[in-house]
């Protein structure tokens, strides 16, 4: 019966997940991002910290959307959990600061006590950053509890052994070749009507959506279920960031990695245009091989991606069903999109995209 129902309901549920998870309104998103960014600048610490950093010596890893659950059929984090721990051990040993960019715990579908019970190892790996005062926890729409429950701070102290405050965002501030650069990090659900944590949303997720997803063993975060083209929410985030002055925006929320304001397929499309202009046959052959599995989608792209400004980045997520996780690194004057995946018995790190911050600043200040 379960198999039959899964076959029958798979496409409607995936459609519903997409519709339910993201219904952004541009005006609301613009207003919410602008207000949060200005509040952090005007009142540092109130909604989030304002941090001056040295791009050559300070290191940051940004992960989001773990959705730590209870190891049941609705837990999207199951396969990625060991990879996540291995990645955190790596970054802690190398002295990175960790920005945990929201939806860290799946508190729409689970109680906090169940999440704590089944994720002790993951919380312990995060605790190592807390002990070094190198941990920033940002609130997402699936873990709004950290921002609106009077017991949240006590719970955080119990988990991490220190007093920390979950925030709505963080601004990293630096200077690159004489030009000011501000990197605004927030979860990215701001202005999303269907992800604002209202009572009906919470009721529907906890009483209907979560149990149904668990019973049918359907994970909307399958790589095959993700669009190759940016989601509307990512498009709006890019539009906001491209209209700001010397600001780079980094979010999560959509579970779709974005680097230099482009998804992977859009970057390939841009690279193909450059390869054609330079008559680089070797590069063209390599791009054609890589795009063959999704040729129809690739051929449907029509924009001139050479004109897109590198103002928007998305960390992706830490709950892909194949166990992979993605994130954003800032280190040694570079910004990178990285992936951690299980290779044999040991998780390994791969740099998917990389860009010097000097090039980024030059591109957005032309």
Descriptive report:
With 366 residues, the protein is an alpha/beta fold. The protein has one domain (2-262, 308-364): Purple Acid Phosphatase, chain A, domain 2. The protein is 41% helix and 18% strand. The protein has helices at residues 2-21, 26-42, 81-93, 112-118, 120-131, 145-148, 152-160, 199-216, 232-242, 264-277, 281-291, 295-299, 357-364, and strands at 50-52, 60-63, 97-100, 135-137, 169-176, 179-186, 247-251, 312-314, 325-331, 334-343, 346-356. The strands form 2 sheets. The chain has a 6-stranded mixed β-sheet with strand order 4-3-2-9-10-11. Strands 1-5-6-7-8 form a 5-stranded mixed β-sheet. Strand 5 and strand 6 (179-186) form a beta hairpin. Helix 3 runs parallel beside helix 5.
Write the layout of secondary structure elements.
Blueprint: H1 2-21, H2 26-42, E1 50-52, E2 60-63, H3 81-93, E3 97-100, H4 112-118, H5 120-131, E4 135-137, H6 145-148, H7 152-160, E5 169-176, E6 179-186, H8 199-216, H9 232-242, E7 247-251, H10 264-277, H11 281-291, H12 295-299, E8 312-314, E9 325-331, E10 334-343, E11 346-356, H13 357-364
Parallel strand pairs: 1-5, 2-3, 3-4, 6-7, 7-8
Antiparallel strand pairs: 2-9, 5-6, 9-10, 10-11
Helix pairs in contact: 2-9, 3-5, 10-11
